[in-house]
């Protein structure tokens, strides 16, 4: 987490969300790095049976393999917001965005290519759902590729409320394709 925070600050960011896959183990480090002029939003990317669901503002583990709707309910029970991450990325299970009532849709993911991001943006606009972005960082140098800008106090509830009200400004860039390919091979090798 220290490297991610260092990278975020170097890029001029005032905060990041930490959302590991099906784990909140990293949340124990949040108090060391969050506070004052930097906010870390505790999160979790849950593998629902319908696809990934991102919970922001959650501190308790949510079981995997629930339906998307049940997962969203569990996020909201904790006072968090539910985001449909990378909803049209062909490299991942698609369609989760149709299975639950999300607070926001990720319309820009730095690891999504071709039509994935434009389709997500069109869906969010047509359905009047607030929008977010995500770097989907698995390495420190990816932090801050995709950003969400909000104008509010640097407090968890204020930031989450600004997102839900649709006040987020989305900006960033995708991971360069050669780096994306190298990272994909690296993750595949280290998974086994």
List the helices and strands and how they pair.
Blueprint: H1 2-10, E1 15-21, H2 30-33, E2 39-48, E3 51-56, H3 68-77, E4 81-84, E5 104-109, H4 116-126, E6 131-134, E7 146-149, H5 156-164, E8 169-172, H6 177-191
Parallel strand pairs: 1-2, 4-5, 5-6
Antiparallel strand pairs: 2-3, 3-4, 7-8
DSSP summary, beta strand count:
8
| Low-pLDDT sequence parts | none
How would you sum up the major sheet?
6 strands, mixed
CATH architecture: Alpha-Beta Barrel
Helix content: 25-40%
Q: Termini separation (Å)?
A: 24 Å
Largest sheet, spatial ordering of strands = 1-2-3-4-5-6
Tell me the domain tally.
Answer: 1
Percentage of residues in DSSP E strands: 15-25%
Summarize the structure.
The chain has helices at 2-10, 30-33, 68-77, 116-126, 156-164, 177-191, and strands at 15-21, 39-48, 51-56, 81-84, 104-109, 131-134, 146-149, 169-172. With 192 residues, it is of the alpha/beta class.
